[in-house]
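Researcher: Quick sanity check before group meeting.
Model: Go ahead. Protein one:
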Amino acid sequence: MDRSLTHRFRSSFFTSPLTHLQNRHTPLTTGPVPAFQGRRTHSLTTMAAKKIGGVGQELNLIASQKLDYAAARRRVRSAFMEVQQNLDHLLFKRAPDGIRTKEWIERNSKGLEVFFRSWMPESGVRIKGAVFFCHGYGDTCTFFFEGIAKHIAASGYGVYAIDQTGFGLSEGLHGYIHSFDELADNVIEQYEKIKGRPELRGLPCFIFGQSMGGAITLKVHFRDPHGWDGLILVAPMCKISEDVLPPAAVLKAMTFLSKVFPTAKLAPQIDLAELAFREPSKKEMAVYNVICYNDRMRLRTAVELLNATRDIEMNVEKVSAPLLIIHGAADKVTDPMVSRFLYEKASSKDKTLKLYEDGYHCILEGEPDDRILTVLNDIIAWLDARCLDK
């Protein structure tokens, strides 16, 4: 494994979120957007750190709320929806028309509210299969994914997504992962309910994970190896080189402290937009991802992510479902060589690895338009090849 690549992965994992810099979209309103006049500023983060160009002072104040809890994140998302939908990005400007969208909230077995979204082909179009999405660290299933989902839905697929607990519009302390296994269990629980719907009966079902969502997807597959007709992994987080791990004593201390101070935050984060987006104009849109978690990584979260990658590395031979792995060859956040490792070790008889020259981490959001369309079309073509004869 290239040491320079693993060094990049190390810096992003241990000093900042392994984020997939996306966001949200359509409305789930929870009451009127607050005007904030006369409010005490202790409930706001530092304005300088959150200044968003192109919007007024009121929206900047709304964006600068503390987002520890879902109610605040839902208010902020509601306030920024119109701004986001008018961004000058391919995924918004050229999103197909006629897609039927829906969003809702349900409580999971742990009592937490989970936010759901769906995108269905326009009325009268035969559904070929269903795609279930797992977003990346710090992220949400809305914003950029809105355009991705609409493109897939326009090709005849039902697309479903949830915000992981602690992220986006689902309940839970923002940016906090108490148990990575619980994330996987929640995905299984929520998506099993959807797979049982009459409109999906007998159809192929695929699970699609980006970055940390790729790790969730793999953990779901290990727990339910026959539950999916295929896995789509985009820039997956699935292995950390021994060369870049902290010393054993440091890891032991981190593990201990994560039990005592689980929500405490680690070293200052770096801005991953520079590393994740190849096109400068698209990188500038990352600031509109106003409900992403972009603060310092919480201690328990870091330990859970590290343990998850170790577990995945030890079990890659158990990957047996049809497999599509997509990665930018110049990704500086997650290592494309790790995707090659996964491809070579997986026991799947049907497996495909696509490495895109010069591509960065946000291969579906931050690349030139022709590259984004190529990747989307590659995903759809892979799905079609496994659905059209079903």
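Researcher: Fine. The other one?
Model: Protein two, sequence then structure:
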Amino acid sequence: MADQAGDAFNERKYTHDFQAEQSYHDMRDYKFTYPSLMEAQIRKLKHGLENWKEIALQGKKVFIWERQWHPTALVGGSTVLFMFLWLLDPSILTVVSVFGLCVTVSDYVIPSVASSFFKPEKWTARREKEFEELCTNIVLYKARLELTWSRYYKLKTTNRKLYFILTICGLSVLAWIGCTFNNLFLAYVLVTFLVLLPGMEHNGIISKCSEYVHNFLAEFLRQAKSKVDQEKKED
């Protein structure tokens, strides 16, 4: 009972109400109202990205592939970065330290440089809305990941066999991949996939692939079931 109540609370926590309102051009515009917890997370994220809002909007255009050359640029940047790592062959401690230095220097320099290029008076209500939508989408994706993880972990109490089968098979596959492929190559594939993921999601590639996999598995199970039924009839 406690697990069911907790899961219901998690699902309610990330739901939203859907209400219509009249827009400026007498069109039907839709506005989402979120729970107070999610609104607090959105406000916190907006405050944290306040000095980066211009850079964040420009980066959003690249990550959602607003232009045709954007995915090529993302793959090319990831490839060049890991090629340097392959050639230099630094230690893990060096990579972490250099990454931390880059983040620290960027956090100090880039907002100051950006303020000289992007004047505050050019920040319009439209750009503010885009920035708020960006922060909202980030919080929503975070909520989806938390819900997915909570539902998976809940299998430990609702369906222990399925939970342990999925966990053991998943970890075994990861162990085999780790033993088969180079660590740097795996990191390159993972980073490249992550930088391409927002664009694939925005352009519907993820949904198409999910639909294809779902249809393939459904057809495979249907054929397997029909084959088993046919063998039973022959016996």
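Researcher: One line on it for the slide.
Model: Strands lie at 17-22, 28-33.
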